[in-house]
Amino acid sequence: MLVPRAIPRMDFLVLFLFYLAFMLIGVVTICICSKTHCLKGLVRRGAQIFSYIIPECLRRAMLRFLHYLFHTRNHTFVILHLILQGMVYTEYTWEIFGLCQELEFSLNYLFLPYLLLIVNLVFFALSCETNPGTITKANELLFLQVYEFDEGMFPKNMRCSTCDLRKPARSKHCSVCNRCVHRFDHHCVWVNNCIGAWNIRYFLFYLLTLTASAATMAVVSTVFLVQLVMVSDLYLETYVDDFGHLQVVDTVFVIQYLFVTFPRIVFLLGFVVVLSFLLGSYLCFCLYLAATNQTTNEWYRDARAWCQHCPHVAWTPSAEPQVYRNIHSRGLWSNLREIFLPAVAHYERKKK
């Protein structure tokens, strides 16, 4: 079949690549800002740059809004999470599911994303609602006996000035939740809760199922588009280019054709592919921390200590910083058992 007119070859591809780059940069920025303390520095530098352009009242309102988003407990990102998930699954149900049925896809294959969604929402709720391991006067002595102090990152006899409690090893005061958390990992804005000893296992399963659902949807969408091209014999067609020459359909033209014919599906595919890559990378990082019995807080503090010392600066032997040594790792299986079967949580449950 002769395609009567050519689709501009670069316009749609450039737009789609810009879309992927924008999504990647945006998600990475949000993840970095929500997992580290660099948001204050970014806001401060941005405020300095735009201080001569943005009125002071508007700048103050923006800073208050950012403080509310990232430094106070609120459900903004929880609602955003559910909206994005709902939009993705609505598009999947509205277009991909029905079209795949017409191509006689297996129903077990098509229902897998829904099964993963149900499991993911269960662990999402558990991550949001489970006590991460809040330290109080009642359980302070119990937590002090769980981990030994390394006299480096976690010295003895340290007190939290806010909670007026002795700080157990591996604990940290969360300024967002205003509480000290046992085996503090990080505060996650997406679940509006701290991640600590008692809910880290739920968070890992939540992250695993979210990654799996995004990857599964990406696979289903890709297989659907490939199957559509194969069934329609599009790769055997020809078209007339802008110069009036007859050309054989190539991969670039097929991608552009699918982009124009099924724009929402292609945009969805780009989104879930980027999301799968980001979530998969973060999941691997979290599994590495679990396997080596580290927390995000400990890894970050250790990395920040190393970053403060430039390699070209000469250090005297007495001035060189001490290397952090992980004294809590007891081997792979013991480390994983500590994550998924925290002893103190069972002890607290028996007391109740």
TrEMBL record:
Keyword Acyltransferase: yes
InterPro entries according to UniProt: Palmitoyltrfase_DHHC, PFA4/ZDH16/20/ERF2-like
Domain Palmitoyltransferase DHHC, first and last residues per copy: 159-301
Enzyme class: transferase
Transmembrane segments: 12-34, 68-89, 109-128, 203-230, 265-291
Membrane topology (UniProt): Multi-pass membrane protein
GO CC aspect terms: endoplasmic reticulum membrane; Golgi membrane; plasma membrane
PANTHER family: PALMITOYLTRANSFERASE ZDHHC4 (PTHR22883:SF466), ZINC FINGER DHHC DOMAIN CONTAINING PROTEIN (PTHR22883)
Protein name stated in the entry: Palmitoyltransferase
Organism: Balaenoptera musculus
Gene: ZDHHC4
